[in-house]
Protein: Large ribosomal subunit protein uL10
Organism: Blautia stercoris
Amino acid sequence: MAKVELKKPVVEEIANSINGAASVVLVSYKGITVEQDTKMRKELREAGVTYKVYKNTMMNFAFKGTPCEELCQHLEGTNALAVCAEDATAPARILAKYAKDVPTLELVAGVVEDTYYDKAGIEALAKVPSREELLGKLLGSIQSPITNFARVLNQIAEQQGGAAAE
């Protein structure tokens, strides 16, 4: 079997994973311990993120003709790919969290909803809260005036009830 035939399934696997993904983040993973890597992979998996190490040449072939094509310029050294189909911020957010503990772990670049982001863009995206957090904040801000109004009504009722008791 020729070498090309062995590489085609890997290129197709990468192409299938990035096709229609909400977020694709390229990360340089050198200098991470096995314990840290295992912990990071577990958290990524729980968030629905696929994290895998591929050869740069394989990623280069898979990126051609896709929105991820601009990532080809960063394919040097030890790179891994974090892909998420639903949450656009999850890969960048989780990887940035671990990059704080491991200085050699570095966010390189990414494509979020078919838009290319360089290192600074991906790091800025990592600071955006998850969808659930944003919905929680929205719900809290909607409930706050109602809750305050209910407290005021309750205090008025208590004052009038206290006056009637005297």
